[in-house]
Amino acid sequence: MRLSILTRGLIKDNPTLVQLVGMCPVLAITTTLENGIGMGLAVVVVLALSNLLVSLSRSFTPERIRIPIFVVIIATFVTIVGLVIEAYVPSLHKSLGIFIPLIVVNCLILARAEAFAFSHGPIDSLLDGIGMGLGFTIALMIISAIREILGTGAIAFGGTVLFQLPIPQTISMILPPGAFLVLALVLAVKNAISNRKEEA
Predict the structure, then answer these.
(1) Residue 54 belongs to domain spanning
(2) 20-37 in b/e burial notation, b at 16+ Cβ within 10 A?
(3) Is the pTM of this model over 0.70?
(4) What would the pLDDT profile of 105-154 be if each residue is shown by its tens digit?
(5) If both were cysteines, with which of 25, 63, 125, 163 could 55 make a disulfide (CB 3.0 to 4.6 Å apart)?
(6) Residue 175 domain-assigned (yes or no)
C-alpha cells in the first residue's frame, strides 16, 4: 500500500505528464539538464517536508484558514531550500533565479497539501510528497535533456560537457517556443505508450 503511494507519482499520476500541474517551471527553466535536476530536487524537498508538516498539524488546523497555513508552511521550506542552494550552489541559484521563490505558488505543492496531506497520516504524506516530487523531477529531466541536446547539440553538467552529438543545433529549442514543442512531443509519446498498453 505504502509502496504504491510512493510510486504512483512516477508514472501513473505523474504531476507533469498526467495531471499537467506545476507547468510554469517545466516550461521556463528546462533549458539545461542541470537546471531541471536542480529545480526537481528542490521541489522534492519542499513537497515532502511541507506534506509531512501539513499532516502533522492537521488535527489542530482550523478548516477555514487551512490554505493560508499551507502557504506559510510551504514558504518556510522554500526559503530554507533557496538559502541552501544560494550558499552551496550559487551558479544554480543564479540560473534558476525567481523560479526558486515561485515554488511557493506552485499548484502541485498546494494541491498535494490540500488533496492528500490534510487527510492522511504523516508517513503516507511524506511518501506522497517524495513520489510526486520525483515524478516531477523525472519529467523535468526528460524535457531538459531533449531541449539541451536539440538546442546545443550537447549535454553539459557543471560546466563539463558530458557528451556531444553530431546533430544540427537549433537555438529555438532552448527558447520559450521550444519548451512547448518538446512538452507536446513528450506528452504525445507518453499518451501513445499508455494507449497501446490499454489496448493490449
Answers:
(1) 2-146
(2) ebbbebbebbbbbbbbbb
(3) yes
(4) 888 898 899 889 999 999 999 999 999 999 999 999 999 999 888 888 77
(5) 125
(6) no
